[in-house]
Amino acid sequence: MDIAITGSSGLIGEALRARLRAEGHRVVRVVRHEPAGPDEIRWDPARGHLEPTDLSGLHAVVHLAGEGIAEKRWTAAQKERILPSRTLGTTLAAERLAAAEDGPRILISGSAIGWYGDRGDEVLTEASAAGDGFLADVCREWEAAADPARDAGIRVVHIR
Questions:
Q1: Is 63:108 a contact under the CB 8 Å cutoff?
Q2: What local confidence, expressed as pLDDT, does residue 106 receive?
Q3: How confident is the model at residue 156 (pLDDT cuts 50, 70, 90)?
Q4: Helix H or strand E encompassing 155
Q5: 88: left (phi over 0), alpha (psi -120 to 50) or beta
C-alpha cells in the first residue's frame, strides 16, 4: 500500500513509518518544508495548503500531526496552540481527501484517550460518551474536524 503520514517525524509517526516500510509499504511523508523527493508531500495547515492532486494514487492517510499534548505544561498559551494545531490540520486533510478524485478512501486520524475525560474506575468502551475537561473538548473538536472526509464517503478511523 501507499500510505501518507502527517506527523511522521514525531514519536508515533517515526515508529509507524519504520514499521510500515519494514512490512513493504511505501510511506509518503507529509511535511511542512519543501519536499526532498517523491516520497514527500508539502502541506501548510495554517495557510490551508495541501494539493488534492498530491494525494492521488495513495491508499490511505494517517494523520498524526499536531502540537504535543504531554510535552509542556498546559498554560493558557499552550492550550491556545494545542486546539488549532489539531483541528486545522485535520480539517485540511479531510477536505483535501474529499476533493481528491483518485485519492485515499481511508483517513486514520489521531485522537487521544483524553476523549473520555477522568472517569475514575468506570469501565470505558468505544461506545462510551466523551468526558469533560480541556482534553475531552479538544478531542471532540479534533474528531469532528474529520467530518468533511466522512461526509464524502471516506472511511474515517479515530485512534484513541
A1: yes
A2: 97
A3: very high
A4: strand 155-159
A5: alpha
**Integer Rg of the chain from CA:** 16
* All cell numbers assigned to 38: 517523491
CA-to-CA distance for 10 and 100, rounded, in angstroms? 26
- Separation between Cα atoms, residue 112 and residue 143, nearest integer Å: 10
Residue 18 pLDDT exceeds 90: yes
* Distance from chain centroid for Cα 77: 22
Q: Is 92 helix (H, G, I), strand (E, B) or coil?
A: helix
pLDDT on residue 68: 83
What's the CA angle centered on 22, arms 18 and 27, to 5 degrees? 60
Residue with cell 486520524: 109
Nearest to 84 by CA among 142, 2, 124, 31: 142
